[in-house]
Give the backbone structure.
Amino acid sequence: MNIIITTPQVPTPDFPGNIYVIEQARALLQQGHKVLILCAWQQRGVCPKYDFRETKDRQNQIQIIQVGYPVVRGASYLPCVIGLIWAVAKIQHIFKPDLIHSHVILPVGFAATIAGKFFQLPVLLTEHWGPISELTNRWSTFWGMRFALRQADQTIAVSQSLKKELVFVTEKFSDIKVIPNLLNPSIFYPEPDKQDSSSLVDILFVGRGGDSRKGNRLMLQAFAAALPRMSKPIRLILVGKNLEQELSEMARELKIEPACDFVGSLLPEQLGERMRRCAFLVVASLYETFSLVLIEAMACGKPVIATRCGGPEELVTTATGVLVPPNDVEALSKAIENMSQAYCQYDAGFIARYALDNFGEQVVARQLTKLYEGVVRERCER
């Protein structure tokens, strides 16, 4: 099957946030599909215009088309629609698609549904972002999302919590499927724990500077509260762009700077290595639709601490980690203290198998393939 995947941005080392697009494309290739990624992005500048660039993800041999479209005041999603239709028409001689699968509904998913009508192709929409109430807090965004959801052949949410949010717009709960994000087992895998129980305990935190929803400051406050109560040496490894700029002064004020190691942005392979070397991972977010780092850490056999902020409740079990209330410094601090003593008691092999059995790339790719086949078959029977 020939599949066009549309997305607002292809992941880069500086912005790895939507790495799920590349990983999903790679998994679909392994299932025997042909995949082309169309990245529709806003052109900014003095004289923005439509732009068409062909690139390739060399590591995974995935064809990528980057389509730039201008921001036109008052035109809403029209420039994105024009850009996407132009791009699909332009590639027809090299790639005859059977369907379009769009990641993120606004604006690229909206444009994909129009392109689907234009080229008579089935369209699937996967939403990753939220909160939906904030994404649709204007008349134009609410009706834009509702239109796209009702025009799509199938809507996918990455978690049950996000599905419930989407019902606010669609009012059709049964029409939304839940298919999680996937992990790459060639990058995130376990190895024998080389860390002695009496050695330095490394706690891993993955955030993004300036993003208050990641709970960056909450993490530092909880770590500072837990540190004096520790019976063994402990260190907080902070991964993410601009975290040091945001938190270094706070770390000095809390007198925990020597116990904090800011490592900046990491490539997936580097993150996998950090996860294998840590004792456990902490997610301190105030809101998550899923939380990819949770399943990646678990795939490395590591227990996790996460806040009950949406997606994590569906990922973490009592056998794989601990859940705490969001925005609660004391609860998070206590969980860090307890996990620092108990992380060795978790079964790393079980945690890794749990992650692979539920979120492994081939497991998720098979779910998508079954859905694709059903959507195409239903379209042919109309």
The domain at 201-359 is CATH 3.40.50.2000 (Rossmann fold). The chain has 13 helices and 14 strands.
